[in-house]
Write a structure and sequence with these properties.
74% helix; 2 helices
Amino acid sequence: MPFSRFFGHYVGQIYKIDEEFPPPGATQGACRACFQRVVERLLAREFFWLLANALSQCAFTFVIFS
């Protein structure tokens, strides 16, 4: 699956980020701050999902090959 499709699926389906768009005519700094908050929240959620997945893979691999 292409990365863009994979990323778009997860962003659209799983991640529901509560953030208000800056009002029309907002400064570039306000838009950048909004974007930064959204990306930080996405990365924080993804990090913990990846960590849990890696730990479960280690546990199952240990049981299978021991």
